[in-house]
Amino acid sequence: MSDQTVRDTVILGSGCSGLTAAIYAGRSNLKPLVLEGHEPGGQLSITTLVENFPGWPEGIQGPELIENMKKQAQRFGAELSMAHLVSADLTKYPIELNLGSHIVKTRTLIIASGASARWLNLPSEQALIGHGVSSCATCDGFFARGKEIAVIGGGDSAMEEALFLTRFASKVTLINRTAKFRASPIMLERAMAHSQIEFISNTIVEEVLGVEEKDVKGLRLKNTATGVESILPVSFMFLGIGHIPNAKMFEGQMDLDEDGYILAKDDVYTTLNGEIIKGVFAAGDIKDRKYRQAITAAGSGCMAALEVEKFLEEHGR
Ligand code: NDP
What we know:
The protein is an alpha/beta fold.
């Protein structure tokens, strides 16, 4: 089935960035279609209390914040669809989006499909996300006040998280699965020199303890060199093992960096071989490996929607 109607704009992703874009595009009467994708609500939907989003002095639960944004976007005519993108043809104009069951044509596309945190994928870890397991030190560090915690990873993200978390935690144990650290020497040295950070190498997490209590009680660890198991009593586990940008479906059609993030020109325009792709804009974590905050993603969604408006106006809409 092919839907012959050409949309003014389609927004890929329903996280903070996509929904902010939808609010702005909706208010401009563009009737945006938001494709919710495989992680509806994005990373906020798996967070608990968000205390640093301006306007909520007591904080707000991540899923509630997302729900509010959805309602706000729908109030201005945004259409939310649980569909996800199978493939896109950006060489065609209007742009063609294959949603599996049908094709959607659109004059503009905002890619706000985000980056998913990489998890260990242990059942116990997944059960405790938001209850002492977190992939965002900036978001949840505050809740680790006075506690002994663990950070998993050996790259710059893990070092940065560990250093940041020393502001709150009484002790940070950094656990790396090998003896080799991927982090840049300066970050590694800084973390190693910190008196509150202890390093454990050649070690993997086998289980996060506390599933029954719905609260992290410790980690069951295994030394990969000796096979010896041990228990590390911590109340929080932060993952710092990287993110996976959700832009795989645009490979070959768009300039991406070596890790698959969109290389957005002037923060918002997508390019192929350095040339701007007509009508295709990027917003949020899909092009931001640095800040990754709800508020920066929201701001970026706003920017993309304003660019869409300008683009449509310049192209006679
Ligand atoms: P990296 O890919 O650099 O590092 C990921 C780390 O996680 C590695 O130590 C890796 O181990 C480990 N890891 C991956 N999967 C698992 C797993 N399943 N179990 C246990 N450990 C795992 O990601 P980062 O997010 O740290 O950095 C990404 C990029 O962003 C880098 O280029 C980095 O320099 C940059 N960055 C820069 C910062 C800064 O300059 N302030 C801050 C943050 C990031 P292994 O080595 O064994 O694969």
